[in-house]
Amino acid sequence: MKRTIYILLFIAFTSLVYSCQQKLDELAGENPYSEGTKKLNITLVYPQGFEHEKKEGAVIKVLNPSNGVEYKVLTNAQGKASIDLQFGFYRVSVSDKGTPVSGAIPIFNRSIDQIRMIDTLKGDLNLIVDLALSYAGQLIIKEVYYRGCTGPDLKTFQYDKYISFYNNSSEVAYLDSVCFGTVEPYNAPTNPTPWSYTKDGQKVIRDTVPIIEAIWQFPGTGKSHPLQPGQEVVVALTAAIDHTILRPMSVNLNIPGYWVCYNQRYTNASYHPSPGPNLANHWLDLLWKEGTATAYPFSSVSPAAVIFRIPEIGAQAYINNPANRSRKPGTTSATEYVMIPSSWILDGVECFDVTTKNKRLPASIDATYCLMSDADRYLGKTIHRKIDQEETNKAGGRIVYMDTNNSSNDFYVRESQSIKN
User: Fold this and answer.
1) Cβ proximity of 349 and 305 under 8 Å
2) Cα(79)–Cα(94) distance, integer angstroms
3) Count of alpha carbons within 13 Å of 371, Cβ hemisphere only?
4) CA–CA distance, 263 with 288 (Å, rounded to integer)
5) What SS3 class is residue 24?
6) What are phi and psi of 393, to 5 degrees?
7) Which element (helix H / strand E) includes 341?
8) Average pLDDT for 238-242
9) Distances (CA, A) of 67 to 33, 63, 70, 116, 188
10) For residue 371, is pLDDT > 50?
11) DSSP string covering 287-316, please?
């Protein structure tokens, strides 16, 4: 009897193994990293009123985040391009400039993540890329220093963060009422942002951007703080003192003309000691603070920073209206975020620490990202705008920086902070 039972159990086990193997074989067919290729056909769709901008030679970048391999393909006269790709997940990004309109240069951007090239797809994969319209800005983010440095004692240090803004135009800009903040979450997420929706099978980031933790604003009555063409302004995000006294790799943030994010609601004295005397009357106003943080939490890993103006109603009135705040989709957290329409955003830059992260900013603000890995941490490095040499020559030598609303095109990793020079 026992022998019969053992035989039956053996037969059942063998059948189970065979069934499991069949299932594994089926799943293997969906393995995006199995061997084989699939053709990706890409069609660019320009915004309404700009259909005539469709042209031959627009650059499309196709990135495999898992290995960092990037391909570039050019569109034909119909705005189409094709490429054969190994099975895997890909990110497609596009950045194209249009013909100036009344002196303003239209920019067309879009980035699409997690495009699945797998052998279970029948035929080619056809991807429609709806390009987002934006314009080159007057006031831009020039540099962000957030990765910290190392002192002579070999201890790491990150209380010296700063961001700088630059007037990239030929006309005077005014800092009055310009707001600054960072986008939720603090660090680039490992999963697609919940602040998005699905369109044609692709995740699309919303056009309203969630600001996390705090909103800072330059004071003034409208023309109190002019910024001349080619001039920059530095904002200390943490301690506005001379850090070079103890740490030569750091920076001096106690310089006349600099500004600081300082408010006594942030009580952590290491991050926010009393600003140096050279920054008297140059404290940004803290319009809004959410949560219990004792220090302004600007990411030292992968921030997404934006500058914006809130028109007509005014920033404080807009922020105070509960209708303009939202909780994070898909969570039960009571934390609220101020929602800023992308059309109000003057400039933004998204930072990644690895290519496999996901975006927070829509393509109209930043189509891609600037990469600074952990290998660049605590070395005094920054992300910095590239110079647009052609536009600089046209401006008679006044430096004009790249501004395509596409950080992988516009920024590079600088070996040291530019304000040290």
Assistant:
1) yes
2) 12
3) 12
4) 11
5) helix
6) -65, -40
7) strand 336-341
8) 97
9) 12, 9, 9, 15, 18
10) yes
11) EEE-S--SS----SS--EEEEE---TT-HH
In terms of pLDDT, which residue wins out, 30 or 72? 72
pLDDT at 285: 97
60 three-state secondary structure: strand
> What is the sign, positive or negative, of the torsion defined by CA atoms of 30, 32, 34, 37?
positive
> 104 falls in which pLDDT band (50, 70, 90)?
low
**Beta carbons of 229 and 167 less than 8 angstroms apart:** yes
Residues whose CB falls within 8 Å of the CB of residue 20, separated by 6 or more in sequence, listed in order:
none
- Using the Cα atoms of residue 329, residue 335, residue 336 and residue 337 in order, give the sign of their dihedral: negative
Our CA angle for 215, 220, 225, nearest 5°, is 105
Residue 40's H or E segment, with its range, is: strand 37-45
> pLDDT by residue (tens digit) across 192-201?
999 998 877 7
Structure tokens at 322: 């509960």
> What pTM did the predictor assign?
0.81
Strands (E), 138-284: 139-145, 149-150, 156-157, 162-167, 173-174, 179-183, 196-199, 202-205, 208-217, 226-227, 232-236, 259-260
How many whole angstroms separate alpha carbon 34 and alpha carbon 56?
Answer: 34
| Dist CA 70 CA 68 (whole Å) | 6
Report CA 63 to chain centroid distance, whole Å: 16
> What is the per-residue pLDDT across 3-49, written as a single tens digit (0 to 9) for each?
444 444 444 444 544 444 454 444 444 444 457 888 999 999 998 88
| Burial class of 233 by CB neighbour count within 10 A (0 to 12, 13 to 18, 19+) | buried
Q: How far apart, in whole angstroms, are the C-alpha atoms of residue 353 and residue 189?
A: 10
Structure tokens belonging to residue 215: 């909103």
